[in-house]
Amino acid sequence: MTFHEIEEEDLNSLRKDALQEIFNISMGQAADSLASLVKDRVHLSVPQMHWVEKAEITNLKASMKRVPKGSIICQPFSGFLKGEILVCYEKGSDFNVIGESLAYPRKQTQRWQSELLLEITNILGGACLRGVAEQLNIRINFGPPALIDRQSDVTAILLNPSSIWHRALMMEIGFSVQSMSMTSDILICMPEHYIEKLFGCIDLLLE
Amino acid sequence: MKITVCDDSLMSRKSVLKSLPKNWATEITQCKHGLEAMEACRSGLAEVLFLDLTMPIMDGLEVLEKLKSENIKTATIVISADFQPHVQQRALSLGALAFITKPVNPERLHLTLKEVGLI
Fold it and tell me: Which of A32, A126, B26, B98 is the most exposed place for a label (fewest CB within 10 A)?
């Protein structure tokens, strides 16, 4: 048998590749859940992974594909992994379609906008991390999502003194739905402390 | 059988390779994006192409379009994390023989290869 082999890669890039792919697979499942609600295709970007020091948050801004600004929802998770899902929704989305799917009164969709954002966050963030938990065979619990800001850029939220971390791993995933004119970004922030355990699971997969 | 596995993730390429039937592939080419896959197909290295969709540089749907427009006969099986109905329909209408949702496993892959008559 002939192999046309690609160059060998070191352990860190193997882990990075595996983690990105695990998130990619999970996001596919999450997007399918959202797509069936909005009856339209959900476009996803390839997940990007960043190591971030809180003291050097400007580096994250520079390395991100886009730094979104708008309504920011935060959903904490705990269990084997601990961290926060931050979803930033840019202004200008049309929530009628998803409002109807979720049986909100048609005329009052704007009134329910914040609640709808929480629902979408639950669907996307929840489905995404559940997929990760399934693939790694670990347990993750979710806290309730909350609207924490209406106009900041997402990196400003990470500097919030209440979020206790110094160095963290961020997964950045962009998604959009054309029929809703919705452009959003998900940042999954996992403090360094939990990453060794995460890599332990990944190493098992890579064996 | 000369096969090409195209996926930007090394882990995913490996899981496809691990899932192949024993002694079925005689020559294996790995590609990280669509441009490399097109090269492999043009060079006759892909009697069967296992193709991811979400990739940098050139994505899987573009590869399917190019194979069609260049009239290259390659049995293509899409293996994708994005399995929304629109995507599956588009891939199949562009000539993919089958669509497998990630993560791939040997049972699913063997069944698909049987269904499309490749084993």
Answer: B26
Nearest chain B residue to A4, by CA: B29
Contact B32 A6 (CB under 8 A): yes
At A90 the pLDDT is: 85
Q: Each residue of B25-52: pLDDT tens digit?
A: 999 999 999 999 999 999 999 999 999 9
pLDDT, tens digit (0-9, with 9 covering 90-100), for A40-51: 889 888 888 888
- For tokens 């063997």, name the residue: B110
Angle at A128 between CA A138 and CA A56, to 5 degrees: 90
Q: Omega of the bond prior to B21 within 30 degrees of 0, cis?
A: no
Query: Angle at Cα A50 formed by Cα B53 and Cα A124, nearest 5°?
Result: 55
> Whats the size of chain B, residue-wise?
119
Residue A51 one-letter amino acid: W
Would you tell me the crossing angle of helices B10-19 and B106-115 to the nearest 10 degrees? Answer: 70
0.80 exceeded by pTM:
yes
Q: Which of residues 21-80 of B touch A (CB under 8 A)?
A: 25-30, 32, 40, 45, 54-56, 80
Domains parsed from chain A with CATH numbers: 11-206 (3.40.1550.10)
CB contact under 8 A, B55 and A27: no
C-alpha to C-alpha distance for A76 and B28, rounded to whole angstroms:
44
pLDDT digits (tens, 9 = 90+) for A42-83: 988 888 888 888 888 777 777 777 777 788 899 999 999 999
Minimal CA separation from A41 to chain B, in Å: 7
Taken in order of first residue, the domains within chain B and their CATH numbers are 2-114 (3.40.50.2300)
